[in-house]
Predict the 3D structure of the following.
Amino acid sequence: MRIPISIAFCAASVLLAGPSAAQATLTTTDLRIRIDGRGQVASLFNPARGAEYLAAGRPAPLLQIRIGTRVELPASMTWDGRAGVATLRFEPSGAWVQVKAAARPTHLALSITRVEPVGIVDAVTWGPYPITIGETVGEIIGMVRDATFAVGLQVLNIKTLGGIPAHDEGSDPSRSRVAQAAPWGSVLQAYALDRSRPRRVSGWTGQFPNMPVAPIAGETVVGSSIAIFGCPAAQTLDRIGAIETAEGLPHPTIDGVWVKQWPDLGRSYLIAAYTESTVDELLGLTKRANLLSLYHPEPFASWGHYALDPKAFPSGDAGMRAAVEKGRALGIRLGVHTLTNFINTNDPYVTPVPDPRLSRTGDSTLTADIDAGAKTVPVASPEYFANEKANWLHTVVIDRELIRYRGVSAAAPWMLLDCERGAFGTTAASHRVGAAVGKLLDHPYKVFYPTIDMQDEIAANLAKWFNKTGVSHMDFDGHEGGLGTGQGDYGVERFAKVFYDTLDHPVLNGTSNSEPFYWHINTYCNWGEPWYGGFRESMQEYRLQNQALFERNFIPHMLGWYRLTATTSLPEMEWMLARAAGHNAGFAMSTTLRELRANTETGMLLDAIREWETARRSGAFSAAQIERLKNPALEFHLEPRGSGAWDLYPFHASRPFRHERVVRQPGEPTASAWTVTNPDEGQPIQFRLAVVGEGGSISRVTMDIDGAITIDLSVDLKAGESLACDGTQVVRLYDAKGRQTGTLQLAVPPPSVNPGPHRVSLDGVFAGVEAAGVEVIFKTRGAAERVRSQR
């Protein structure tokens, strides 16, 4: 029976064993760390504050081991002070592990140097170490802190993974759990697996049961290494940077500045497909908005070998290099998008001859010869082929041929049915009985994945392309694709490290995933996609929740991607820009050159981005304004006033006014009448009208102001749809997801309303059996608040 590692480790962690023996005391600038004769961490003490940060009464093993499914805590420890080596002995296995300890001013470095008997230990866990601090728990970076002090654990290589594995491949689908909240405060923890022997795992977090994984020569738990540190809370980021330098961790710099403290960290960027012929125009628009980079969403003909799309770049890599130089002359980076280790079906790794290193979920064998025209493939077992949990391309490989199948026979003799021979441009051929039939690991994006050694090659391919072209911005989107190697989070970490180690210049990079070693390479995380709705509706709650995650893990605040379309309006853009200013967050603006050309307000939109971002990054907004800017219910407008000054105009929104279908006597008015107060100076009326309810619709909507002026809104709106009047003759129409669907041109401009109360009535014709209603919110622009750059 396979027992999840995380459960086994947790079950063992409540046990204590072994009599007291020698102990070790190791001192850094801010922590005195004591390990007792049982191999338990007995103290994490800060002498300056006289404070103990190890939670009392909790087990704190320096190291645990796993042999098969059994977890063992250290029974005893001996300490060689001159060599700085602790020897931990475990029972009942009799195994022993040597840990080298080096106390540096900034941290304590711990590394496994020897395990005996060789090959006995399948996994190790550092800790968990119970910490009394629980106010801020940085789960990715492995640090906990309160207002005064921080305690942390850093993994020092990719074989050491943060947290505890939730799956036997060595993966954790959470954001990370190097640090984890606990009733007494928190715990710090890390682990490593022996990958030097063949294994069978529940691949990709359980989607591919019994997946065979080839060994990685020499990749045992020996060498697993961590750093434990403590420091004043305000010095945490500096301390991590010092550990990076001392331990040879990735420490990327730009213009001599550590990227984590780079002044341009968290700047926004433009996503738009540029070509050799259009890059100048798009660079000009990027410059107008003063954005960090111009980022291509889909530049490659295929992923794996990374040849550029010849239609966009007829000059190939030289054309991209020329674009990079144009951007550099304007102070703009050029970026490209790819999907980490995903391999397209048109890539040379797949066609015309599939690379034997494509990752497989498992194999069977042919039970009979087949010729090149056979439409059924007889196999010894259906185990891997019948798994429909994660099987999108239904593709197997036999020798040098790829074959797609529609299904598997319901009973023996087992057959792959309705086969497409010579799939993806490979060549149909005859195959002999006993030949291996491998099920390729795939994904809904219609891609395949590499084994770990092939992944190294792909990561190097990508980095060499960046070196050749000078492109300096990308995302490890689909970073979880590293799981396709069968090596769990190790595969994820390894792709980023190989890429980083192969580069010859700094490359800004985001990610779709979060890992503790990769944190040192990573520049930002920009989670939030624009495909699900308008600015207000598209994953907005998720985007805002991410800000707390970024804050506690020393990741720059980013709001994700937003979509600028041909109909995006200035109020929509400023709604998002106000949120970005409130959270001091950058963003990506995704668009196309066609949409930028088609939108009549493009110039205003880019100018608004430039002014809001300049004000945000210069610290122009007060603490009180920042709190208001965070509130998604509030709207603002910003106007530049020169010399680093702006006027911030808040909008004041009314309460929602509701109009519902009512039954009246024939001829009796059905309109709803309200008193709407303008608290600001006289201005054209502005409002947003939404149809609410489970269904139904309304048409022939009219709004009467002060019994003198009527606004005719001749449009049909279904439940969930809305419209917005921003004081001009153009009324914008929106679908239930907040996406603009069109406009309505008013016959005359909306009337101006003076300060004070006004009588407003609204009527329309309801249709449908559902009880639809209408909600209207009025807004007015308030007095200007002058703000100035503070840096």
